[in-house]
Amino acid sequence: MTGSKIFSIFVILISGGFLVWISYTETNIKTILPSFNSKLKTRENKTIVLYTSFFGERPWLFVHEHQDYTKTCGCDFNSCRLTYTTSEVSKADAVLFHARNMPGLAELDNLNKVRKPNQKWIYFIMENPRNAPDVRPLDKYFDWTLTYRLSSDFRMPYARHMRIIGEKPALNVNYAQGKTKQVAWFVSNCNNKRDKLVFKLEELGVQVSVGGACANKFPHQIQCSDRDCKDELRNHRFYFAAENGLCEDYITEKYWYKSSEVNTIPIVLGGSNYYDSKLAIPGSFIDPFDFENPEKLANHLQELTKNNTMFNSYFKWKTEWKLYGLGRGCEEFMCDICTKLHEKPLMKSRKLSSQINPQRECDPKEAAFIKWLS
Q: Model-level pTM?
């Protein structure tokens, strides 16, 4: 033991009520440490390939190949690698496909033949099932989903919101100031069921100003003075946040941005439970289905047009919640994918057509809306 340093370790065994003295040389310590460190192995690196473009954009505008998600999201993404290099698809752990840029079945078959065991294919779409391609031919290929749905394997909502922690801002703004008009609406998909509610409100004395490709089909139009029409929208008290499909959990920028950026109250028309705080901000909207019929909805809008105190109460949410969206440097779904790829056993696959189904997700609410209108 010549030249070796001696370390003493005291171990107190409380239950036994005695003390043990153990001595180790420096050589002993060096022998012990490697066996301890071997239990702290870093996780095996996982590769995620983004195979398709996103509406022709490659790389995707909101997913960056060299983004440090560990830093920006606060998750452990060091054990995952993101790439747009499609030649790596055969050895990838997960492959992400955008539904609107999906390869043909022949190409999918070829990719399927070279995929390694346990490789997961992820089907990504942000459109509702009414506007989505038929997924039944894809059932045999795909394992996981990335959509706006709460039940999706990985979720990507159009915006995110969180409760304000700490000191909350005071509600000392008159949001009604300068708002001389009633309802605004931008629409480019004409002759939809939602048009009927607009015409009904007009009949009941509520003015709806319409912009977009369908504007000339309605009695009142919006004349924009700027590109986003924000100056004109600020003159309105309400925004008709009507989705193009009344489908479960489907809440788009119509609710999130058109309303919040110009301080209008969104009149939501969708298939979601807007009162679920995981989907929307409680108290921030008017849901037509809360009223017995369109007449009572119109009466409520007229009252809010005259009563500033009642109107401002719809903005109390700004003292409780904050809103953030895409482009902030963190996409939570990338963290979620990385985490799931390291789980053992891997998350079970579910049939794609059982998750994306317009008859189940959209038909019931659309039928209820037609009944409510009549």
A: 0.84
